Each structure stands twice: as C-alpha cells, then as structure tokens.
Structures
1.
Amino acid sequence: MKVVIMGCGRTGAQLAGLLDADQHQVTILDTDTYSFRRLPPDFGGTALLGNGLDEESLRKAGIEEADAFVALTQGDNRNVMAAQIAKHIFDVPKVICRIYDPIRRELYNTLGIETFSPTTIFSQMLKERLET
Amino acid sequence: MYIIIVGGGEVGYYLSKALLNEGHEILVVEKDATRSGFIIDELGSVCVRGDGCEAATLAQIGTGRADMLIAVTDDDEDNLVACQVAKHKFNVPRTIARITNPKNEAIFKKLGIDVTISSTNIILEYIEEEVPTHPLTHLLTIRDKGLEIVEVKIPADSTTVGKAVKELSLPPESILSLLIRKDQKPHLFTANTVLQAEDQIIAVTTPESEEALRAALRGT
C-alpha cells in the first residue's frame, strides 16, 4: 500500500515506522526537517519537507497514486483541510484525519471524512481504567 | 441582518465597523483576550472571546439564526473550518472566507464555501493596474458566471493599430464593451470602429480566453 502521512510528530513518525516495517511504501511530510529525527533509524520510506495544504507538495509526495492519506499535524483545522484536499481534489481512496476537538470530529465524520479524536478515545480509556 | 465575523484582526475590526454603520447586527469572535478587549472598547459589546471554529462557541452566540458568517482570520484553514462548521452544523445561508494563498480559491469553492476573497490576488490586481506596460488588467471578476471584466491598452507599435474591430479574430466568449480614447468621451464599439494607438478597451471575457483576447487586440 502507498501511504502519505502529513505531520512527523510522535504519532506520525511511529506510524510511518510501523507501516515501513510492514513493507508499505511510506512518504511522510513535515514543514520542519528537524521533526524527521523522530523517524526510526532504519526507516526506508521518504521524508519530504513540505506543507500538506499545498497541492504542489502533495503531488511531490505522490498523492496522485496514494492508496491512503493520514493527517496528523497538531492543528485540527490543518488536518481537516488537508484531508478534504486529499479526498475531494485527489480522490485518495482512504483518508484518515486526527481531530482533537470531539465536536469538530463529529461534524467532519458526518461530512464523510474518516476521523478520530485522541481526546475522546483517551478519556474513555482512562475512565474505564479508573472504574476497574 | 445578523452577521458573525470570525477573526478580530485589522480586517475583522474595520469590517465590523463598516457593517455596524450600515445598521447590521454583528458579532465578532476573537481568540485573543487583548484584541477582543480592544474591539469591545472601540465598538461596544459586539465581540466575544472564543474560537470561531469550535461548534460550542458558535452555538453559544446563536449561529443558528445568523444570516451570514464571514471568516477573516490570517489562516486559510481556520477560515475554511469556521465556514464549514457554520454551513453544515448551523445551516448559515451564506459563508464568506478570506484566503491568503490564491491557490486555495479553487479548493474552497470545491469544498462548498460560497464566496472567497483572496487578499493576495486583490493586491496583485491593484499593482498590475499601476504598471503602465501591463498588457491586460483585471478590473472585476463575476464569479458565479465565470466571467471577468478586463482592460487592454493598445500600444503604438501594435500590429492592430488602424484595423477595424470586424477584422480582428476575437475569441467567441469575449465582448468589447467600451472604448476610452484620449480627450474623448468613452463610447461603445461598432464593427467598424478602428483601433488607434493608446486606446483603452474595456472588455468582458472568460479567464480561459483572456490570452486569446490580448493577442487579438494587441497583435503578436
């Protein structure tokens, strides 16, 4: 599978490493090359300096042939916009987007973007842990 | 009309001021405490502190009854989300987004924003107008019809000087609307109007045939 990941934070870097280890073709985008230090030393994919909101950068990252796109920057709005570009402009078959704000997540889910909110998932997990 | 403005920067502030003067009910949503304090001091209690991209904030300020939401923050993506939340969650009939990157214009349109205003494009157009040798100047874009009004100046060395309009091979979507000639009143074109050096032509065209129009009017 060909995957483009936007945002090389802890989650992005770890996901890129996992997918790469499973022989998927991974390209990871970040606006700061310093972020790429988080990638595992044996990472075999492509780390590309670029903004995932920019069509040109996305093309360079190979979005036109990508099977999946994952938006994992710190900004909810940036993720939402990039995910919509991937889905509606480049017709990427699978688009996943992280949205911290649960209400915004719900809205974009109803608008047809696969979203998840670490806030909701994590607080649910903590609650369960506390109650057992 | 009840108009919500997201972003209380310079654009948001002056826009609010203008809309208030026109008698509209307005409310500014601004994240920054100092900035929202400034707006309240200057314009009265027409500003709430909050994130205009958050549905909770928008619910609180009665976005459901808003006639329009205008997002004018510095970040294109924030403006996009504010408009989308307003449109899809609160059914606001009209949403307007300011964009800084002209490339986003097409994307925003595709994602359902009613109107986009590209500050970069507007500044470029004004500067273009002031560059005297610029062959074609954009005067106005009629967005929903895909048309634009442009100005073309005919330089003295143009191969079309002395030719009548009917001899020019104008692209089919273009109409020559007005001729402005030095020391004369502006007048309308006829098929027999002969082009002169330094003529200024106002024409309606489409973005696609803009280049063909320029070539037809100025020669190659």
Note: Chain A touches chain B at residues 53-55, 75-78, 80-81, 84-85, 88-89, 101, 103-104, 107, 110-111 (CB under 8 Å).
2.
Amino acid sequence: MPFFQIDGEPVEYEPGEKVLSAVLRSGKIIPHYCYHPGMSVVATCRMCLVDVIDMGNGRPAPKLQTACSLDAMEGMKVETLNQKVEEGQKLVNEFLLVNHPLDCPVCDQSGECILQDYSFKYGSGKSEMDYSKRVNGWRDIGTFVAMERNRCIQCSRCDRFTREITGTNEFGMFNRGHELTLDTYADRPMTNKFQGNMADICPVGAITEKEFRFKRRVWKLKKNYSICTGCSSGCNVTIEHDRNEVFRLKPHENQNVNKWWLCDEGRLTYRMMNERKTRIPRPLGRVEGNLEGVSWEEAYGAIVKRVKELKPFPHEVLALTDTRASNEELFLLQKLLKEGFSSDNIFCPLPKWGQSESDFFINTLITTDKTPNRAGALALKIKGDEKNAKLKKVIEGELKVVFILGNPFEAESEIKEIIKRTQLVVHLGVFHNSWGEIADVVLPGQYYSEKEGTYTNKHQRVQSTEIAIQALRRTRPEWQILAELLQSLGQTSCFDSVPQVFAAMVQEAKAFSGVSFDEIGSLGIELKNKTKDTGMKVLVKQA
Amino acid sequence: MFSEDIQAQVDNLLCRYPIKQNALIPILLLVQKENEGWLTEEWMQHVADICEVPLTHIEGVVTFYTMFRLKRPGRYHLQICTCVPCCLVGGTELLEHTEKKLEIQAGHTTDDGVFSIEEMECIGACSYAPAVIVNEDYHEQVTPEEMDKMIKELRQ
Amino acid sequence: MAEETLVLFKNIRNPKYDKSLAGYKRSGGFKSLKKVFGMKPEEVVQEVKESGLRGRGGAGFPTGLKWSFMAKGTGKPSYLIANADESEPGTCKDRELMLKDPHLFLEGLMISSYAIGCHHAYVYVRGEFFPAIKTLNAAVGELYADGLLGTNPLGSGFKLDITIHTGAGAYICGEESALLDSLEGKRGQPRVKPPFPAVSGFNGCPTSVNNVETLACIPFILSDGGAEAFKSFGPQNNSGTHLVSLSGHVNCPGVYELRMDVSMKDIIYDIGGGIRDGKKLKGVIPGGSSSPVMKADEVDVLYNFDDLAKIGTMLGSAAMMVFDEGTDIVKLLHRITRFYAHESCGQCTPCREGTHWSSQIIQDFLRGNGSDEKLKRLYRVGGNMLGTTLCALGDAAAMPIQSFVNKFPEEFRKYYATL
C-alpha cells in the first residue's frame, strides 16, 4: 500500500482514501466532529484541520485543509501538531462553544462528550463571547431519544444517519445560517427502530437516550464486551454497568456483524439483566408436592438417586432446550444425555425465521428469530423441526427423565402436559417459568451478563461474551451445572472453564472443528463447516 | 389537487430534468404562487409525492430559501431592499417610512391582509437603488413619496 | 475622458434595438454559432483559451481552462449551467444582459454547450428576477420555434435543449457547488471539493458552471478575429471588456461596459459623473460587498483583476459601491456583516457562528458599547473565518471586516472614544 507522512511518521492508505480515514485506521487521532466512517463526508465542523506542508508534489497547501476531505497522496507530508494547526483547532472550538450552553453538570453526555474532551485538549479555556446564547430548547423527538437542541453543534451526523443509514428521512436540517437547526420537523416524532444510534453518534449531548436520562454519570460505568442476545444477528455490544447494575448497552464496532449499529429493541434487553423479581435465587426441590429451597449438593444428590431408581432406557430420557443457551451449554447438555444415558433425544424449537431484505444494511440487523444461538444448535445437530413433529413422536412413548434447559416450547401446552407426567423433570433456568412449576428439581442458572459463553449468530459466526456483573450468590452458570451433573452421574470428563468446554466441543462436534477459543477474540470467527439450511426466509423488502 | 393548467406546467417542468427531484424548487414556487403566495403542509406533501422526495426534505428546502413562505403574505407583498447599495442611498429610510406608513413591522401583514412588508437582502438592482419588488414587479429608485403613491394606488 | 467600449452592450446601447430573435439576428446575431458548428469543439475551447477570457462571476478563473477540465469518456452526459444567481451586493450586470439582450447570452450559452458537448444547458436564475425569467423564457421559446434549439439547429446535427431554472432566494447558491445542489432540488449548501463539478457536478455528471456575462462574451470571441480582438482590449491577463455595476453616491449610477485599462478614478468621476451633491469621496468597495474596501486616496488604480490584487483587494464581480464623506462606516460594515450572517448556509462552523457574532459586535458599537478590546475582538473573529470555511463565504464575510477595521479604525473609535 502507498503511504504518506503524518508528523513525520508513515501512514498507509488505500488508493482513493482520505487522510483522516487512513490516520484513524492507523490508530492515531485527529480531532473531528462531523466525520463518521459510516457516513458521507461533509467537512463542515472544520475541526480536523491539518497543515499540508507537501502535497506530494513538493508544494505546500496554501491554507489549512480538513483531513476528512483531503485525498491522501503518495509522498504527502501532513502536520497535525504545529502552531498553525493548533490555532486553527482553537478557533474552531471557540466558534463551537459560542452558542453551546456548557451545561455539562446536568448533561448526560458529560464524560463521553467529544466537545468537552476537545475543548479541554485543544480549546482556549476562555471565551470572549458575551452575548446571550441561541436558545432552541428540549424536545422529545422519538420513542427512544430526546433532543436538547441548545447543545447541538450542527455536525449533521443525525441528519445523515436517517438519510443514509436508515433511509427513514425523519431528521433534517432546517433554516439556515445562525438559525440552522437539526431536528424532526414540527415535533413530529421519529419512528425508526435505530434511534439509539443517533445518541451514540451525536458528538455532544444534543441527542441522548431517554432510557439513560439522569441515571448515572458515564465515568462511573464499567464496560464489558458482550453480544446482544435480543435476536440472532449477534450484534456486538458493551454492557455498561455500575455497582452490579446494568445501565445501558452500547454497540461495539464489528464490521462483519453490526458495523457501528444496534437496534433499540436490542438496547432495551439490558432491563432483563437487572431483573430480580422473577429470578430463581437458589436450587429448589419438590418436597411433598411443594418446591422448597435446597442446597446444590442436595439437589444433585436427589437427581442422582432418582436416576438410579428409575434406570431409564435411552429412549426414556429427553432433553429440551431453547436456542438462547450458549454453544457450550448445548454441547454439555448433549453430552449429558449421550454419556449419562446413551441417549440422543435432545430437541429444540426451530421455527422458520426471517429478516427484511433492504437497501439499508441496518434493517437486516433485526431478525424475527429472537434467540441468539439457533445456528449453534443447528451446528451441534440438536434435533428439531418447524412443527415439532419429531419431538411429538418421541413423547408419545414412555418418558422417565426429562431435562429442560431455559424456556423451550413455552407456548406448547400439549408438550408440557405430557412431560408433566414424567417421573423426573429437571429444570435449568434463570427465571421462574411454567417449566419450573412442573419440575421436580430446579437448578438456577445465570444470565448472559453474568457468565461466559459463545454464541453462533445467523451468519454462523461464533462470538463470545464476558462476565459483566456478579450473579446472585446461589446461582451457577448452566455450563457448570451441566458439567457437575455429568460428574455426579459418574462420568469422568471434568470441565472447569468455558474455554475447556469449547475445546472439547471442537474435538467432538464436526461443525466446530478447526476453530479455537482464542481465535474468537473481540471480532468472532465464522464456522468452517457451515450448516446449509438455517431455516431463513427473506421477508418482504422494505420500501 | 392541481388545476389542469398547473398540472400541465408541473408536467412540463418534470420533463425538463433528468430526475424528478431536480424540478422541486420550480414546482414549489409554482405551487406557492397558485396558493396566494404561501405553502401549507398539505401542498408540500403533494409536491413531495410528485417529486418523490420525503416531506422532511421539502421542509428543509422550504426553510432554507427566503422566497418560500409558510404564512400568508399580504395581497401586495412589498419587498424592500436595504442591502449595501440600497442602504447607501436611502433603502433603510424607505423601509422605515413604509413600516410607519402601514403601521406594521417588516415580516408582518396589515390587518386587512392587503400589504405585507419584507426586508430584502440584495435584489440585484444596485445601480437603480433603492429598489423594491411588489409581488413580481421591480420598482427602481423609489423615493418615500413614490412609495406613498404606490401604496395609495394599490389600495384602490 | 473614459468611455464605454461596446461589445456586450453593442445592442443594448442602440436605442432602436429590438431584443426579439429577429432583432438580434438583424444585428448580426447567431453568425458565431453558425461558424462554430463548422469547428471541432476542441477548437472552440482553444479559441476561448486564447482570448484570455476570465470568469466574470467573481473568481476570475480562465474560462477555457475550466472547460478543458471537464471529465471526458465517463459515459455520463455533460452539463453546462449558466450562473444567473446574481446576488453579490452591488452587482446587477447579468440582469441587464438577460433583460435587455437575452439572445446574446443565449447564443453564448449555445456555443459553449457545443464546445463542451453539453446537450441540455440550464440557466439558474435567481428567483427574485421575475422580469428576467419572463424575458429568458420568451427568448428560449423563440429559439425553439425557430429551430435554433432542439435537434439539429442550423443543420449541424447537434442537439441542444435549454431550460430556465428558477432559484428561490439564497445568496450562497451563487457558489457553484451550492448552485448545483439547489438545481438538483436540495438545500443550496456548498459541497466538499474535490470532486470538482468538472468531474462530478449536476446529478454527479461532469458540469461546467459559468457566469452569464462570461457566456455573453463567447459570441464575440468566436466571431472572425474575435479572440484576438478580445485580447487586445485590455492589459495582459485582463482581456476583454467587462460590465461594471456602479452604485452608491455617484451622480450617474448604472451598468457600464469598460475595458480593463480604465482607472477607478475615471470610472467614478467621468463615467459616474462624480460624487452626489458635490461631496467628497470617502471610499469604494471595489468588487462586490465581499471585496476589501479602498480609501479615497487609493482609487487611482486600473480597474482590473491584477492591478486590484496588487493593492490587496479584488475585482470580484466588478461591482463598485462608492460612498461619500457623510457615510457612517460602522453602519455600512454592520449592514454588510448582517448580509453575510443572513446568507450563511450554516453548515460549517466558523461561518455560521462567526458571521452572526461579528454582526453582534458591530451592533455593540452602534449602541455605544464599543471598546478597544471589542475592536480587536471583531478583527480576530472576522479573521478566524478567513481560510477556515468550506466555501468562500467565510472569506467573503471576513475580508470586509478586516479591511474596514484596518482602514477606518478611527470611525469605530468615534463610537466610544467620547465616552
């Protein structure tokens, strides 16, 4: 690749690339507001001014240039730290603050505000503006975000977002000059499903998430990488939390998955991470018809005892799981059946699913499959079909032991009725649900935000989650519960960590062969042996 | 929504440009002229459909250009230039005179709806300053006395 | 004694001239077009290059050179847009041409279209020019009826359409890329360059935007021996005649066609008949409101691109605004600054905030709240718009502020020194 020099250091660029884009890719910083790599270049904030001392032809540029709109040239020499540039940055920042209210103490963006950071780093520290500032006021502009227009610095990222990214055109630039506003027109609320991104791309506190409003100062938030489990797209997120409470999900850039974006529905899944009322707080066992709190040892002991009494044949054992479980959990459940009972009666629901075909990439991020790991279940060859025909056939025969992982077939009362009659029903789950009501033993699992795991998204990319918050004291991650059950039932395999389970899965499950846990990293890795039919149907193209 | 005549003019405009959006501004001007000098949301939506652009786009355009009006102007819209050459030779005084005469400020319409005043930036008649546009007609080197006479004549 | 040289105004100055197509033809019109149809387009561009014609819109860029930048072989149509969005305060020359001799300009437009291979030319007229729009539409109608527009004019096999497009009131649309956005049916906000219009202009196609007066020069340049004659009219690099819009405190304001070797002094005192009411000259804004102001003792200079540039100002659109000793400089600057604050598109930071802020500071002086500190601040805020904006409007707003403060500091002090 050709290169140019920035402050004396070489930076590689792709032919046709702009200076700012190449510099940012190289990990260096040039301050900027209006530029966003996912949208068109407007070069209007003027913050990314640089001094071109050699345009590649031996001649300097006559005045400061904006790096975002400057074509990179072989042999070009650009300076970003000299006095001329510093003065340029200072003056632009002064102009930006002329009408900015500087209400940082009450602004949610404070702490992650680019205007704040740059003013501190590149600004002058005082303003000579002594007239009253422009007042535009607060507006509720949509289901997910609100707008404090006084804070707007007119970078137009939001305008470009609804034009170029969602194609919904709800935002626009109105009026002109000093009165230019970016807004929805005449209080018309936005309807797009991706409004949260507008809060993300807004460099200041003009557009903020209503959900997060006044909840917590951002510098208190700790961040962990994770995956949005709201649907099968597997958008990369950071879980942002403080004192074991999750406050929001933010998208985490992954060009192979969600680019920079996340839908509002996905953002709201953070609420479940804080859910306590319906959580199963400790192991439960049925004593004289009632579920009562027991210890883990008691629970495992009861299961082992009952299994030994029942001595089920392989066809008398069944495991049901939903596709919200991680790859490792599905794998261990499968292993539990195979090694503990020589059975392969493991089923999950596999309804048809779809996503919209659209000219706008972002629309494809929402799928109708609201589970994060259907592709993982398919890769592990967990049984199932659209109409649950195979499962129904199995439950026609006699059943003695049933394991339920999560909340599968939640609406299938017919299946539940039959399973209710089984002698031993073990339920592993995070929340109380109707399976718990018919279970003999209930083993409390942990939510995504509390445990490690890998998930296979709709494109069969395996991605991992980190532990973000601490789980309830008497719960255990499902992979651990399953590993402990395996051991309790006398199997020798021993798993102490998710990477260990993953390694075994790579050995034993063909679809995962050739993939290593370390390779997943922060960007994920696609399966090498892909399932051909994932049951996807394209939905009607959106206008 | 359009009369036959306007529809014909709109169709003619549309076929003069490679894409429909290009004809947006001339069509809006035409619609505004037909709608007594101002635009309503209903009309803007109609034009949005014709030009195949979102309504927000039209609103952005309409609030950008000074010739589009979102409230009804007077029957006679007095556009008085006070920009540099006109202000050198009495444009500002002419505006003030007219405001006093009609007892309204620039940007407003008389109660009877006959006159409205707009202070204009350069209208390109600088060598013939001060200049005034009444609806679509230019009046050049206008003195306050001539303005009075004009107002009187128009009122009748 | 300075006098007019009639090339563009040859017909207009003829009291018997009839601006109809027939009248234009009688005066020798469309001879050049006929001649051009026998030439190769490259030859036409070459002739224009040789004539030394520089754009009359304000920047003074060589027209032939601009045309030669047009992207070729793109598979897309090429467009020529006549910039008739004349809105720089002080400028009213294009209106004169369009109103009084539309066919001259249109012939120029047609020849130029041929030169750059454009088959549909647009005339972007500012919306307030109602009479000019009517005149142009009527003239284009005549050309279609006569077969000069449409397919195969004069048996040339060339196809050309012309559409008169109306703007809707925005000074910034005189900037060529803003004009293109406006023509496309958008808010007229200047675009990021590159790509330049010659590569990606109207609807992404190669486009040349030329001023009305520039195009009106073309029929003369392409007449027999025209390029040479045009070049001979003025000093080197300042070819041809140009239209000077004279306004302000002169006895005879008007639009005059002059060679570029006439001094400003002669323009004010001979052509313009001197200052009104026997007053003394205080200063001149030489090339539209954006050009740096000149003091009375600086006007003994030739009125052309290069001589004005030498003394730190510019010819711009050749709009001279003359003001006498009685003029309040601060008020005048306030009016100029207000203009730019009103016309700033607002998309880019220094111009959006700077134009308004500087206008507020000047207003402070007018209200008696001036100070040395504020004068410095005004100079600094104005200067901060210089060279930092996306388009030239920031510069246009900055230059008058800096030059007024530089040249008339005592006028500002008058507002607060007595306190």
Note: The beta strands of chain C are 78-84, 118-125, 150-151, 159-166, 207-211, 241-248, 254-259, 281-285, 294-295, 319-324.
